[in-house]
Amino acid sequence: MSVEISPALNSTAAAARPRWLRLRHSRPFTLALLMSCMALLWVSPFIWMLSSAFSTTTFGEEMASILPRFPLTLDNFSEAWNSADWLSLYGNTLIFAFGTFFVQLFTITTAGYVFACHEFRGKQTLFVLFLVQLMIMPVVMMIPNMLTLKTFGLLNTLTGVMMPYFTSAFGVFLMRQAFLAIPKEIEEAALMEGCRWWQVLFRVMLPMSWPSLLAFATVSITYHWNEYLWPLMMLNDPDKQVLTVGLVSFAMGAESGGQWGVISAGTLMVCLPLMIAFIAFQKQFLRSFGFSGIK
User: Fold this and answer.
1) What are the start-end ranges of the H helices in the chain?
2) Residues 6+ apart with CB under 8 A from 148
3) What's the confidence (pLDDT) of residue 277?
4) Is residue 270 part of a domain?
5) In this model, does residue 47 exceed pLDDT 50?
6) Domain of 171: which CATH number?
7) What is the CB-side half-sphere exposure of residue 210 using CA atoms within 13 A?
8) Per-residue DSSP letters for 120-173?
9) Considering its fold, how many domains does the chain have in total?
10) Residue range of the domain that includes 113
11) 109, part of any domain
């Protein structure tokens, strides 16, 4: 035997629920709506850049609309590519970003291993001095670094631009924490088998610290790819400039003619390699940050 409940009774029961219970059920929808609005606000400049880069519009219309205007075209990319020596800019940026990271790969792993696995007098004091570097603004060190590089004759060279970044306090701290998480017995077993310290480091410790290393690689390469002020101060030769400096020089000339579509196309060309790398290795990036404890 079934009992039917009238719609009026259902509405009465719903109205009789406590107000806090009704608000509790509405919170997920409100939170999702709020987060969607914030995400749309955050991504709107990128949407405008895509719209402007692929659209053919007049000067008065380009700045106002975020929606693309059909037919879409690649003329802005062609004009932007012909307006600067992009191959040289890409090459210099790759040397700067990846060359710096490969040197850091050696310095941060060896320093992190020493701080994590070896005992010596003044170890804690020296490690604190490493961490103090994180509290110093990079801008404060630019003039002393330039004077030092001038003494070595490395001004206006890519080597001079990379040299202040050859060590990283953040990288040393990250790798030290990763090595401390590895059981001491594994290192002792490798040493008992006859491994030297560098064999223990590169054949045992590093493969077990891969997530932390990938997290640092993401931070380091992205930071140096987007670096602007230091290369601007160090490099005078246009043939040695990096993408960010070349983009600003190119955009200043295009802005004077109101060519916002060309500027957007050039900006997208600078961001595109990092975007492709993130899309291709998104799961590995997020997993590496999770395992390394970065939040």
Assistant:
1) 7-15, 19-54, 59-62, 75-82, 86-117, 123-132, 142-151, 158-162, 169-180, 184-192, 197-200, 206-208, 210-225, 229-234, 243-256, 260-280, 282-292
2) none
3) 83
4) yes
5) yes
6) 1.10.3720.10
7) 7
8) -TTHHHHHHHHHHGGGS-GGGGHHHHHHHHHHTT-TTSHHHHHGGGSS-HHHHH
9) 1
10) 81-288
11) yes
Distances (CA, A) of 181 to 42, 174, 280: 37, 11, 29
Instruction: Please compute the mean of the pLDDT values over residues 189-210 and round it to a whole number.
Output: 86
User: Is the predicted pLDDT of residue 136 greater than 80, yes or no?
Assistant: yes
100 domain residue, yes or no? yes
In a domain, 157, yes or no: yes
pLDDT level of residue 48 (50, 70, 90 thresholds): confident
pLDDT at 49: 85
Round to the nearest angstrom and report the end-to-end CA distance of the chain. Answer: 57
pLDDT tens-place string over residues 78-96 = 888 888 889 999 999 999 9
In this structure, the chain runs to a length of 295
